[in-house]
Fold:
Amino acid sequence: MKPLLALAPLLLFAAEGLMAEDSASTFGPEGLTITPILEATETITGQPIHFPQGNNQLVAVLAEIEPGGQVGRHLHPVPLFVYMLEGQLSIEIEGHGIKTFDAGQGFAEVINTWHNGRNPGDVPARLLIVFSGQQGTPNLIRP
Structure:
């Protein structure tokens, strides 16, 4: 009986391995491609990214700016990520000039800095914006 008890952990380990292999073939990734977009510790102007503490929340929005349109002067008191889905966006950043982004690019937006985004192109600019903020704190402040 003792030799069988000694083998029990090995048998369990082997059975779990077989189950994991079966699960991987059924539920594992198939046809999956992962393309890195951004890994950043700083915003586009070199500000370190610090996340708020407390009742944190993520807010994701899709924004569309018509050709020749603009967002209007504003600032963000929280960190945010922007991914350009279509078109082009030029951001005039107080004290930092203009930075331009095209479809397929992602960036960490400036924090607590006045700026305005414009669409200089001839097609709509579509952006996915993900704010990392706190409940009760606005994601965008206008003058």
About this structure: Confidence is low (pLDDT under 50) at residues 1-15. Residues 56-134 form a domain with the Jelly Rolls fold (CATH 2.60.120.10). The CA atoms of residues 13 and 19 lie 10 Å apart.
